């Protein structure tokens, strides 16, 4: 593994650990504050916490790794050629390890009783809903998340600035609606981490439901990515010499040291990778800017 990839993988691990600790940890905190209950008002604060920690991760690590912090995001971006498939396994491994670390940090803060208080903030399908409904709920919520990512973090036509906050709010919106059905995961690593931590410390973990939190998010993410490419930014409209984005979709030409123009395009970690395409035929090159999740 190259040093450059190692740094990005570490960013994914840290970002996912923060997501799980503060996001799933807010579930435990809400149940404690609610004397054992998680009502809809408390669910709103859980959704807001997820949204804010995702925004912080995006702003903190977006220029380093793209801040996917979600296996479904990495897979979807690779499926539409906005991220190299060869790096997907390393990203997913880092995200899963980060999720487990976040779950263990919840235990470190709240103690082993966190397994009895919301199962370390784990997600589970509502007993009154079928697994099929759970898959659909997770699919729709993740679709909204990837739509926000494609529109605000990948498309170069997006206005600068609000991407991290809006992506976080997309997750919060999904939790507000489908949280009562599945807990609103939209992220296999977010579910995996608390499941592992809860199992290690003797909690009852619904592992038989884990596939719901893999199939739903991955399917929703891939569908959203392809839908955005097909409807909002067809690949054929991007010139071959368009500036390279964080995913390395368009490779560009690496310039010799000392010959980097001031207008050169920026790569994943702020490194200059290639030249920006001229204004004609596309006035504003429309390539990937940052892959985030």
TrEMBL record:
Pfam families: MIP. Residues 272-293 have a biased composition (Basic and acidic residues). The keyword Translocase does not apply. It is found in: Membrane. The keyword Transcription regulation does not apply. It comes from Planosporangium thailandense. The chain crosses the membrane at residues 12-34, 40-61, 90-111, 131-153, 165-186, 210-231. Residues 243-293 are annotated as: Disordered. This is MIP family channel protein. Keywords: Membrane, Transmembrane, Transmembrane helix, Transport. NCBIfam families: MIP. It is a multi-pass membrane protein. Belongs to the MIP/aquaporin (TC 1.A.8) family.
């Amino acid at each position: 593994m190259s040093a450059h990839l190692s740094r990005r993988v570490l960013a994914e691990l840290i970002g996912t650990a923060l997501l799980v600790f503060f996001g799933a940890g807010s579930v435990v905190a809400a149940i404690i504050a609610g004397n054992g209950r998680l009502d809809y008002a408390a669910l709103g604060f859980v959704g807001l916490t997820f949204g804010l920690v995702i925004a912080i991760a995006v702003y903190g690590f977006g220029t380093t790794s793209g801040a996917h912090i979600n296996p479904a995001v990495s897979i979807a971006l690779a499926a539409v050629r906005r991220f190299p498939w060869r790096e997907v396994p390393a990203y997913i491994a880092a995200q899963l390890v980060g999720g487990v670390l976040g779950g263990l940090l919840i235990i470190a803060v709240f103690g082993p009783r966190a397994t009895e208080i919301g199962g370390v903030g784990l997600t589970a399908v509502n007993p009154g809903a079928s697994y099929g409904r759970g898959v659909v709920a997770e699919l729709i919520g993740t679709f909204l998340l990837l739509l926000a990512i494609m529109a605000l973090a990948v498309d170069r036509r997006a206005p600068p600035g609000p991407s991290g906050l809006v992506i976080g709010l997309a997750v919060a919106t999904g939790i507000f609606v489908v949280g009562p059905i599945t807990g609103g995961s939209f992220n296999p690593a977010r579910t995996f981490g608390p499941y592992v931590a809860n199992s290690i410390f003797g909690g009852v973990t619904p592992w038989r439901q884990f596939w719901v939190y893999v199939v739903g998010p991955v399917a929703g993410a891939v569908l959203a990515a392809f839908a955005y490419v097909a409807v909002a930014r067809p690949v054929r409209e991007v010139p071959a010499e368009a500036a390279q984005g964080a995913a390395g979709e368009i490779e560009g030409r690496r310039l010799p040291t000392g010959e980097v123009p001031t207008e050169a395009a920026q790569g994943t970690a702020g490194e200059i990778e290639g030249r920006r395409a001229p204004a004609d035929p596309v006035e504003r090159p429309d390539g990937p800017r940052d892959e985030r999740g």
